[in-house]
Amino acid sequence: MTEVILKKQRPKHLALNQIRLPLPGIVSILHRVSGAGLFLMLPVLLSLFGNSVGSPESYAAYKAVIGNIFVKLLLLGLLWAYLHHFCAGIRFLLLDMHVGIEKEAARSSSRIVLIVSLILTVTIGAKLW
Amino acid sequence: MVKPVIVGAHYGFRDWLAQRVTAVVMALYTVIFAISALMLPDASYENWRGLFSAGFMKFATFLFFMSLFYHAWIGVRDIFMDYIKPTGVRLVLHSVVVLLLVGYAGWVGQILWRL
């Protein structure tokens, strides 16, 4: 009986323009998106890696491929995906060990993950560009 | 008292743990790789190739990729379990992913043992 009453009184808030995913939720979905992107690009990455270490000729071919501006941008995106997945993954491992599971701590650690992975992407990306 | 009935294929905890163990392996490798790459005198072909042909790094790189493929299997399978409901489609997708990852593992072995 209480269940029925509770169900009836539950407020509805479906103003989609006002509902905002909290930062830990953004980190979580980006962890999934970056993982999926890295998985899909595995053949590209493996082929680049194979060529880069294969022989002087394949190394030259690899250099020519990554000289392309679009390839560079793709690799920059994948670099971010890797670094975000890395940073968010460390955060999830800490959460597994019950480190920083309070709401405020979880929010600030998700902010740190977003910022640190972006800073690392820009730093490493600039060095490799 | 209700006797708890355990159902399922019992792979939940094993995969949960494997995902984390492989993550730790990859994280450690990432740090080792980053330090070794930073210590290279320059980004010539010889230095870059030499980074992976040395005994320890060859083994560590192989371990990294094997962890990556197992980790990717669990992650991609979880994504399909969340979004793909028809059993037939899911079965096909799971099979494709497993076959791809097994193929990638062979590919990486070939790349590394040619060095």
Automatic annotation (TrEMBL), chain A:
SUPFAM superfamilies xrefs: Fumarate reductase respiratory complex transmembrane subunits (SSF81343)
Main localization (coarse): membrane
Gene3D superfamilies assigned: Fumarate reductase/succinate dehydrogenase, transmembrane subunit
InterPro entries assigned: SQR/QFR_C/D, Succ_DH_cytb556, SuccDH_FuR_B_TM-su
Keyword Thylakoid applies: no
Bilayer-spanning residue ranges: 21-49, 69-90, 111-128
Subcellular location: Membrane
GO cellular component term, pick one: plasma membrane
UniProt remark on cofactor binding: The heme is bound between the two transmembrane subunits.
Essential cofactor(s): heme
Signal peptide limits: none
A Pfam family reported for this protein in Swiss-Prot or TrEMBL: Sdh_cyt
Binding, heme: H85
Entry keyword Heme: yes
UniProt-recorded Gene Ontology molecular function terms: electron transfer activity; metal ion binding
Gene Ontology terms describing biological process: tricarboxylic acid cycle
Keywords: Heme, Iron, Membrane, Metal-binding, Transmembrane, Transmembrane helix
Function according to Swiss-Prot or TrEMBL: Membrane-anchoring subunit of succinate dehydrogenase (SDH).
Sequence similarity: Belongs to the cytochrome b560 family.
Subunit structure: Part of an enzyme complex containing four subunits: a flavoprotein, an iron-sulfur protein, plus two membrane-anchoring proteins, SdhC and SdhD. The complex can form homotrimers.
Entry protein name: Succinate dehydrogenase cytochrome b556 subunit
Organism name: Zoogloea ramigera
Lineage: Bacteria, Pseudomonadati, Pseudomonadota, Betaproteobacteria, Rhodocyclales
From TrEMBL, chain B:
InterPro entries: SQR/QFR_C/D, Succ_DH_anchor, SuccDH_FuR_B_TM-su
Cofactor: heme
Protein name: Succinate dehydrogenase hydrophobic membrane anchor subunit
Topology versus the membrane: Multi-pass membrane protein
Ligand binding (a ubiquinone): Y83
GO molecular function: electron transfer activity; heme binding; metal ion binding
Function description: Membrane-anchoring subunit of succinate dehydrogenase (SDH).
Superkingdom of the source species: Bacteria
GO cellular component, one term: plasma membrane
Pathway: Carbohydrate metabolism; tricarboxylic acid cycle
Compartments it resides in: Cell inner membrane
